[in-house]
Amino acid sequence: MGAMGRPPLGRRLAAFGTTIFAEMSALAVRTGAINLGQGFPDTDGPEEVREAAVRALRDGRGNQYPPGPGVPELRTAVTEHQRRWYGLDVDPDTEVLITAGATEAIAASLLALVEPGDEVIALEPYYDSYAACVAMAGGVRVPVTLHPDGDTFRLDLDELRAAVTDRTRLILLNTPHNPTGTVLTHDELAAVAELAVERDLLVVTDEVYEHLVFGTAHTPLVSFPGMRERTVTISSAGKTFSFTGWKVGWVTAAPELVTAVRSAKQYLTYVSAGPFQYAVAEALRLPDAYFDGIREDLRAKRDLLADGLTDAGFQVFRPSGTYFITTDIRPLGETDGFAFCRSLPERCGVVAVPNAVFYDHQDQGSPFVRFAFCKRESVLTEAVGRLKGLATG
Length: 393
What we know:
- By secondary structure, the chain is an alpha/beta fold.
- Helices cover 41% and strands 16% of the residues.
- Helix 11 (288-311) runs parallel beside helix 14 (377-392).
- The longest helix has 24 residues, at 288-311.
- The N and C termini lie far apart (56 Å).
């Protein structure tokens, strides 16, 4: 068969079409609906951080290729951040790698650490890039489902343990968890760490929402016994500082793991975001008041939207972290999240995302729908007003 005798897209990615975020955002534009689907803020982050990027541009810092591992100022700031918030000691020269956002960090980690046929456990529902990155690495995705439990979602540690086989290479762990808003507890993390040590597994942790937690502290998995040499910790500036377009992320890990991830990363983007790296270095050093402020601002927005969704007739899972709320549409007499989200803009001028796109077991995710609350308060108030129409008819 000739080159054109088969579809252009290789089979590893054939199952992945246009992301749901692109589809729903286009729907929002077409209908003029309020977009609570895609998770990006509608205001920029701190002015002093934006000015730091302008200053770097003007001073000629980062306008040419930055060093492969990232600019020294940012690598140092990342190590200071890990010590300041978690008491972790990280070497800026051998244990930090700057990436094009957490998305590239996840891709590079999986491409570097996973061989074809290796099994990768991910908590389901999971951020959609996880599945694509596992596929690109030739790995086998093994979902472990978080289950509704009261007003939250819980990890069943027995299910996690049962999912590990002789072919399991690593666990891809996201906490605070998108889309459910679950923050794994100290005891749950301790159990994950014990399992990883017992079965000699690597763990890649996505901690991009580490500062967006409400009333419960985030604890990095790497801080548990035996995890230092087997954990790749990933975070980024986009969520914490509301500059999602800058795409500045980082990996911290033991030197041999960072070296492995860099081996893949250098052939993806090589380097990126030169001037922004200097600005993010300044952002990471902002005073506690900034981090407290963004948390309290989001807590108020969470409660505004959660109360509005409850009044509109949804069952609401009030998140402990992230800036997303997962809801159950069954009290509204609905069961199909896809159909519900595609009709919602016409029905009441609001866009949400069906959680089923984050599941292998789509039937398990079918009745759940995600809303983002990282928007201006006036926008959320308008959205809540529009959603009231669901309760009345």
